[in-house]
Design goal:
Order of helices and strands: HHHHHHHHHH
Largest sheet: none
Transmembrane segments: 69-92, 98-116, 128-145, 173-190
Organism: Coprococcus hominis (ex Arizal et al. 2022)
Number of helices: 10
Radius of gyration: 17 Å
Distance between the termini: 23 Å
Keywords: Membrane, Transmembrane, Transmembrane helix
Shape: globular
Protein name: ABC transporter permease
């Protein structure tokens, strides 16, 4: 967690998102489309960096494979959520006429995109796919909703940040959906990384 949060990636994402909030606000299109990008800055490719550099050979004997994988996944999700939520918190606290935003939804939404990016990094073994893949999937979901499936709002990423439809259990329903997606991503991530490090 310390490595994920006290990092250049986290600082860069925090400052960039804070500037976006102050310049265009939390209800802007720019804020919504940057969530799947900035949330990947802190720690989405950390496992890939360890693996490609060989550092993982010194790391695994001290913590074990399962602890290593779970720690990487958890740190990535929390750091991804915080790098979006903390600037939003400052924005709501100090900006005049700040748009009403749900901090919990922003955290969980950003967490999912960070975890998706980490999973893509594990599957593809590529940082470029990790950073760009989550944004591409995000944008595809937006296009599919806007052009073809407007009634399927549960898969509309904008709805996960600022919901406008009636959800079962309101925002808790969105949290349940995002938590379920996180569990699914964890299963994919765990099995993928485990195969890579089985013989390390």
């Amino acid at each position: 967690m310390k490595r994920a949060i006290i990092s250049k990636g986290f600082l860069a994402g925090f400052v960039l998102e804070l500037l976006i909030f102050w310049k265009v606000g939390g209800d802007s299109e720019l804020f919504r489309v940057t969530v799947p990008v900035i949330s990947t800055f802190p720690y989405a490719t950390a496992w890939l960096a360890d693996y490609q550099s060989g550092y993982i050979k010194a790391y695994l004997p001290r913590c074990g494979r399962t602890s290593y994988i779970c720690g990487k996944f958890l740190a990535c999700g929390i750091a991804g959520g915080l790098v979006e939520m903390l600037p939003c918190l400052l924005y709501l606290r100090f900006a005049k006429n700040a748009a009403a935003l749900n901090l919990m939804l922003i955290f969980f939404s950003a967490m999912v995109w960070a975890l998706l990016s980490a999973t893509l990094a594990a599957i593809s073994n590529s940082r470029y796919i990790a950073y760009g893949g989550s944004f591409v999937i995000y944008y595809i979901l937006v296009i599919l909703h806007d052009r073809y499936f407007e009634d399927i709002y549960c898969l509309y990423p904008y709805e996960w940040i600022q919901y406008e439809h009636n959800w079962i259990f309101d925002e808790q329903g969105i949290v349940i959906l995002l938590s379920s997606l996180s569990v699914l991503l964890f299963l994919i991530y765990y099995n993928t990384v485990r195969r890579y490090i089985e013989r390390v």
